[in-house]
Amino acid sequence: MDGKRTSNPLYDPANFNDFLRRNKAVVCALSASYVSTFAGYPLDSIKSRLQTTKTRITVPQLAVLVYREEGLMGFYRGLWIPLMTISFVRAASFTIYSRTKEIFRNYDILCRNSIIDVSLTGGVSGAMSGALISFCSAPFELVKVRRQLEYTIAASKGISLRKPPGTLEAVKEIYRNNGFAGLYTGFRLHFIRDTAGTALYFLEYDGMRHLLGRQRSGEQGPTPAWLPIHSSLVPFVCGSLSGVTSWALIYPLDVVKTKVQQRALAGEPYRGPLETLHRLVRGPDPNNPKLILSGIARIYRGLGVSALRSITTHGLLWTLFDMTAHYIDNLPRSSGKDEQY
């Protein structure tokens, strides 16, 4: 022994740190998404059930009903699909979003230090991300909806389930009934929702981060006097608010999408988006229409639990994203390497 520490040929810390810096957006998005998806999934499951139930029921009553009929696992039915796929989708989404912003910066487009330029850059980058990712995420979300609404879909077919089919069985049934195209049931609504929703989300997030002191370089400056919070809370506040407000704006579209997909999965006759929306608002009987406000309230049923889910999911997502990014930025660099990532 000469007193010198021998290097491990299978693990080189310097190269590993460089790898993390080169793939910072992917690493941050994956690590943050796993935790935030797991934390918010039970609320997402309750949201899907509230959107499709035909009887008035409160969130606590529905939670008790799910627990009584399906146990604790009922809240996590179909979890592994979003846990694995949505995490990778988010990683791809953040990568597209980051690369699009880099293109704007490299070509000196919308680069003024103003909230308008910052927000528009985030919005356009988000729209590009949402549009491209929707082609990959649509089949996974359809299967997730199928798994979450197993009992509802079975009841509409007059079937009593003792044990719901697993995820692979659900995929096989969709493919068997409608072929590969069946995995893209409701895709147009999914595409519009993801494109508009992601654009609004990143537009609001980047705009709020700018208002709360983030520089165009990405460094967090002091927060304004009208919101004197610690800088570590800024990602959670901005992520929560942008998640809640953007979701509230596209929530009716998500309700219509879920209803259209539910009818298709249950084998019921096709009903278009506009007709679905009209029936949700005014009711199924044209001779006895519901009050518009009552119909709007029905559409927004479950918004409260969705808002709570958004606060939990997006607040944690951005907090963990920034923490991971800060950790990677402060990793020691190997000697002779001055690259910036």
From TrEMBL:
It is a multi-pass membrane protein. Keywords: Membrane, Mitochondrion, Repeat, Transmembrane, Transmembrane helix, Transport. It is found in: Mitochondrion membrane. It comes from the Eukaryota. InterPro entries: MCP, MCP_dom_sf, MCP_transmembrane, Mitochondrial_Carrier. GO terms for cellular component: mitochondrial membrane. GO terms for molecular function: transmembrane transporter activity. Its main location: mitochondrion. Solcar repeats lie at residues 20-103, 117-211, 230-327. Belongs to the mitochondrial carrier (TC 2.A.29) family. This is Mitochondrial carrier domain-containing protein. It comes from Gymnopilus junonius. The lineage of its organism: Eukaryota, Fungi, Dikarya, Basidiomycota, Agaricomycotina.
